[in-house]
Design a protein that fits this description.
By secondary structure, the chain is mainly alpha-helical. The protein folds into 2 domains: 40 residues, no CATH class; 255 residues, no CATH class. It has 13 helices and no strands. Helix 4 packs across helix 5. The protein is globular and about 65 Å long. The N and C termini lie far apart (53 Å). The relative contact order is 0.12.
Length: 352
Amino acid sequence: MTNPKCAACGHVNRLGAAVCEMCDTHLGDAARPGAADPFRTTGESSDAFAGGFHSDGEEPRAGALPTDIPSPQFIVVGDVIRPTLEVYRKHFLLIGLLVLVTTLPQALLQYGAYNVFGGATFEGGGGGPGLGGVAFGFGGLGTLLYWLLVLLGNALLSGALAYAVVEIQRTGAARVGESLRWGLAKILKVAAVTLITHLLIYGLPAVVAVTLASILGPVVLIGFLLMLLPWVIMMLTFSLAVPAAAVENRGVIESLKRSAELTKGYKGLIFLTYFLWWLVTMILKVIVTWSFYYGGRGATSLPSFLVQTVIGGMLNASMFVLTVYIFFGILNGSRQGFGTRTFTPGPEAAAR
C-alpha cells in the first residue's frame, strides 16, 4: 500500500489519510475528473474565488479550507523552511529584482556618503559603508531621511514579497511589476505597522530596562536579562503584524491584534524557527562579506557594493518570506482560513 498523493497540491500524505494534510482536499474527490486545481486561476475578480479555489467557474473543491492558497502546516520548523527554500530555488531572479529595486535608493545614498565623506576621513581604512558614514556626511537631518528611506523601502519590499509568495502559492509564478504595484498600494500601512511594532518591541523593553537599572543599581546584568524576556515576547507577539497588513489588508491596530491572536500557543515554535534561520543567515552574511574583502574588492566600486547589497538584502528578505509561510501555516493549523477579498479586493472593498 502506497502513501496517497494529493491530486490538487501534490503532497504525499500518510497511509490511511482521507484528507490532504497540506491543503485539506479529500484525497478521493481530488482525483475525480474536473476537480478544482489550486494552481489554476481564471483571471476573474475576487468573486470567482470566494470561499476557496474555483477552476473555470466550478464550485470550490470538497474539503478545502476557506482560503485562496494551498498553505503549509506549521507543526515543526521544517514545515515552513522547506517552502521558503523552494521559493528561493525556483524564483531566485524574482526575489533578486525585488530586492534590487527596493534597496537601490538607500544603497546609492550609503555608497555616496561613504565615498564623499567617509573615504576622506578613513582613507585606506577598507571599511564598508554604513549608517555612520551617512550620519557623518549629512548630520541629523540626513540620518532621519535615510531611516525614512529605509523604512519605506522595507515596507515596499515586504508588500511586494507578500504578493509574490501568495501568487507563487496560487499560480506557481509571480511578476515583478505586479508585486511592486501591490507593495506600493500597501506601503504606508505596512510602514506604519513596522514603525509601531518596532516602538513596541524596542521602546517598551528599553523603558523597563532603564527603570530596573535605576532600581537595581549595580546589578545591571539582572536588569538586562529581565529586559530580554519581554523583548523576546513582544517580538514574537507582533511578528505576524506585517503579513496581516500586507496580505490581509488589515488596519494598523487590527494587524497588531491579529498577530497577537495568531501567535498564541506558537511562540516557542516561532522563536526556534527564527533563531535557526537567523543563525544560518548570519553565517552566510559573514562568508559573503569575508569573501569580498579577502578578494580585495571590498566596497570600493559601485558594482561590487551593489552586489553585496543585493545579496545581503536577499538574505534579510528570506526572513520575511519565512514569516509569510509561518503566517499561512498558523492559519492552516487553526482552520481560520484567509479571506479572498482582502488579497484580491472586490468593488465593495476597493471603495472603502
